[in-house]
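Page header: ASSEMBLY MODEL / two components / 645 residues total.
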Amino acid sequence: MLDEKTNRLVDIGRNTLRIAVIILSLVVVSVPFAYLFLNSLKPPNEFLTVPPLIIPSHFTLEHYQNIFDPTKDTVNYLINSLVITVVTTIIAVMIGSLAAYSLSRLKLPFRLSSIIAFAFLLVRFYPKITTTLPYFILMKDLHLLDTQAAVIIAHVSLTLPFVVWLMLTFFDELPKELDQSAMLDGCGPWQRFVQVILPLTTPALLTAAILTALLSWNEFLIASSVAPSNAKTLPLAVSSFITDKGVQWGPMSAMSSVIVIPVMLFALFAQRYLVRGLTLGAVKE
Amino acid sequence: MATVQLRNLTKRFKDVYAVRDLNLEIHDQEFMSLLGPSGCGKTTTLNMIAGLETPSSGQIIIDDRPVTHVPAAQRDIAMVFQTYALYPHMTVYRNMAFALKIRKTPNQVIDEQVREAAQILGITPLLERYPRQLSGGQRQRVALGRAIVRNPKVFLLDEPLSNLDAVLRVQMRAELKIIFNRLQATVAYVTHDQAEAMTMSDRVAVFRNGVLQQVDTPLNIYHAPANQFVAGFVGSPPMNFLDVTVSADGGLCFGDVRISAPPDADLRAFIGTKITLGVRPEDVHLTGEDGISGVVQVVEQLGSSTLLYVKVQDNLVSVQTPGNTRLNVGQKQFVRFAPERLYLFEGGDGKSIRTPGIES
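Prediction written out in full:
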């Protein structure tokens, strides 16, 4: 009897600890965002009070009205960001997965596959800032400065290595017999990829898509160097609230909150498809 | 259906020969097993016939048409993989229909063929299920169904039963035989299980280290093996081998034992040299007092038979006896080798000198 009781107490203790850890992590992650969101609803005179006001005295939407004022370009920035992110994601995932599939299945001599795969990784080793200037000069020479294309090209080259590596891991895990079986069933390489391999790697593709989209959507450094005004993206727009006349805390918070919404919606939509274990039953383990 | 001819086929991986100078013909409607231990080149051979591996040299001819450099997709060959390789995202029906769809077969024909194959294999109730919802035996059948549906020129089967449990394996062995008999198909069947090769095949090709050792009917492989390797590999429990010296009068001596050679064996060239004597456990008999003496070391009671390991001189000889034999370890026993059932092999390369053959 005593044992049973002790066991139950230990169980309760363990569960409490677990829940406490989860809540703590959640707080660490979400408090900054909650504070940002509350700030976006705060009246302008409450930003720099001492001690700081966490909950505004009253809620206001004036900052949102401010940033979506027809005289401002916020909608343009939003469109820029959307176009750049969507196009970057499509191109990077498409090219990246094709490259990864080839690397995974081609029998190249002299371990060439590994060398190429490593080369993809290599370009991610150095800090992004080192490539910012070359990108600027490249885009200038290509007469692409301040266009969406400039940002897209840069973002694709930034995200491609990541897609290749993620997909390579997945393709390597897929049994080669599936390819061979499809081959004997009469499929060419393209049919094999589209009809057999892709459906089995949908979760991986979506993971790659989500992470690529996030990277592109949030990217600041290169976008700021190659797209200062016409092709300006939302992160740049946020930074432009830091002016020589001071920081416009209200609109900045409102804009930052707006940035998050599309990403959240996308992540919510995509996570439904992130089901692993679809390959179960392909071959006997 | 079709014939398959392999001419001087060689596959080299860097310095290692996986298959060496292979010449083999699989006749129309023949069930040919490629038998050998793992790493002997049988799967590589199969992959080359399928077009999944390119030969380093040599030729593959299917139905008088050289296909050595024809892509796998155009060889009209169906393969059943050891791991089944079913498409996990497709139902059984779509798995079976896939190859026909790729070939743009009309839907109605696909439906007829899939249902007919499902009928033959008894998997009609499973057609709407996914591979992950099937047991090993059912997956195996679907893999087979996927091959049958296509009505290919040649069926290639790569150890299709090795992932099944022992009972199911024996059952599927019989079923496969019935199915392929009915289809009158040309089949190349890779296995390391001699029981599968012996029971199912019209002919068996035995491989070792990438080199073909012998191609013959199962009974000839068993009773007239080309060399010591084939003799030792085929047969369960395996054949006993004893190193013997040929005496001047044609006797076979080991230790202080002398047994007379089979009268039809011409051993004149081997007098004074060491050769290998082979005798299968079922051809060793326990006798009264007039045999070779030995001591029972191990008793394995299998039920239908009892296997004894008897120490004779320095050799451990396995003896197959009736299931009701009652003997104890340490007991002294006399054994006799049935003289007409002796196998003799050359000392060096193990080439057969004399085998019992099949009584006609």
